[in-house]
Write a structure and sequence with these properties.
Elements: E1 2-8, H1 12-28, E2 34-37, H2 42-48, H3 54-62, E3 65-70, H4 85-95, E4 100-106, H5 119-122, E5 126-132, E6 144-147, E7 153-156, H6 163-179, E8 183-188, H7 194-207, E9 214-219, H8 220-229, E10 236-239, H9 241-255, E11 262-266, E12 272-276, H10 293-305, H11 310-325, H12 343-356
Parallel strand pairs: 1-2, 1-3, 3-12, 5-10, 8-9, 8-10
Antiparallel strand pairs: 4-5, 4-11, 6-7, 11-12
Bound molecules: nicotinamide-adenine-dinucleotide (NAD).
């Protein structure tokens, strides 16, 4: 596999370095992976005046998978919009045609007390949110502001989904549910929105090809409520871009530890961009205290979804669990009074655990 490594800004380079060490450890055990790094975000701007320099995009296009740290930082906040770090991220997602976003929300037993919800509500949670990433109201045209006859301004956006856009994400959803607990909940707002009525119709049509997967539908307002009331009722949630944006952030908070959660954005062929869900954490950048586990777990997703290497993916996940069980904690996931380790030490612990989980 060719893997493009894009560390980005803030804590990005620190956490990606630990993820690279995990790949290197697997390489010594036979994993075939070639790595090449390039700047993105603020680092791209610093290097080439562009948050997505051309060579970075070309490297990502030629790769089988991309690992991204995080982008952004106060230094870049006053740049004009096209030069802002987050534009690099939006452009690379679009250029690579990444229409599927996968966000697992897993509560590790050792960390269940880090959640703002009661332990019994979240302990054992293993939920996958599947969000459509390139359509919906975030991209629909027309959009803008206009002047009304009475002189006041009006803002407007267009929510829309074509049948083929719904169909392709629905297929991904059923295929993923099939590999898990075979339960798919499609979330929409079909009681109010025409876009959602079509969404529901198409999902029902696709469901006929997956009779072994139990499909249910839920309105998004109820889903938001159920996620905090009884999140363990869900296995895979399938939803559109805007609802998914909101619900996946809500779900990540169920785990109480932003530094633990990986994500994958995939194209139709399974090529993907893998990144932690958190940002560049400028408040702790350069201090060596960031939690690298979300990025390390992103490597597990990479091997599973782009590498077809379930064994190595499961090995990384087992190593992370073992490290948590052994009591290793970075500051963000430590309970009061616990000894904490830094980014590098956490990476060391995972690499050592990998060696024990051959
Ligand atoms: P953030 O996720 O960077 O940080 C939120 C809080 O969580 C901070 O207190 C931070 O220290 C902590 N945190 C985050 N990741 C951590 C980790 N791995 N280990 C320990 N603690 C961690 O969100 P923010 O502060 O809102 O944004 C900071 C910058 O990141 C902004 O420039 C924003 O635009 C950018 N951002 C980038 C992405 C991305 O690259 N995908 C996503 C979100 C935000």
């Amino acid at each position: 596999m060719k893997i493009a490594i894009l560390p980005g800004d803030g804590i990005g380079p620190e956490i990606v370095a630990e993820a690279v060490r995990v790949i290197e450890a697997l390489r010594t055990d036979g994993l075939k992976a070639e790595l090449e790094s390039a700047p993105i975000g603020g680092a791209g701007y610093d290097a080439a005046g562009d948050p997505l320099p051309d060579p970075t995009l070309k490297l990502a296009q030629a790769a089988d998978a991309v690992v991204l740290g995080a982008v952004g930082g106060p230094k870049y906040d006053t740049l004009p919009r096209p030069q802002r770090p987050e534009q690099g991220l939006l452009r690379i997602r679009q250029a690579l045609g990444l229409f599927t976003n996968l966000r697992p929300a897993i509560v590790y037993d050792e960390l269940a007390d880090a959640s703002a919800l009661k332990r019994e509500v979240v302990a054992g949670l293993d939920l996958m949110i599947l969000r459509e990433l390139t359509g919906d109201i975030y991209f629909g045209q027309p959009r803008g502001q206009r002047r009304l006859d009475d002189g006041q301004r009006e803002g407007f956006d267009t929510m829309k989904y074509s049948e083929s856009e719904i169909r392709r994400i629905a297929h991904v959803g059923f295929a993923i549910a099939r590999k898990r607990a075979k339960k798919l909940c499609s979330v929409d707002k079909a009681n109010v929105l025409d876009t959602s009525i079509l969404w529901r119709e198409v999902v029902n049509e696709v469901a006929k090809e997956y009779p072994d997967v139990a499909l249910s539908h839920m309105y998004v307002d109820n889903a938001a409520m159920q996620l905090v009331r009884a999140p363990k009722q869900f296995d895979v949630i399938l939803t559109g871009n805007m609802f998914g944006d909101i619900l996946s952030d809500e779900a990540s908070m169920l785990t109480g530890s932003i530094g633990m959660l990986p994500s994958a954005s995939l194209d139709a062929a399974g090529k993907g961009l893998y990144e932690p869900i958190h940002g560049s954490a400028p408040d702790i950048a350069g201090k060596g205290v960031a939690n690298p586990l979300a990025t390390i777990l992103s490597i597990a997703m990479l091997l599973r979804h782009s590498g077809g290497d379930e064994e190595s993916a499961a090995r990384i996940e087992a190593a992370v669990k073992a490290v948590l069980k052994a009591g290793y904690r970075t500051g963000d996931i430590a309970q009061p009074g616990m000894r904490t380790v830094g980014t590098r030490e956490m990476g060391d612990a995972v690499v050592a655990a990998l060696a024990r989980h051959r």
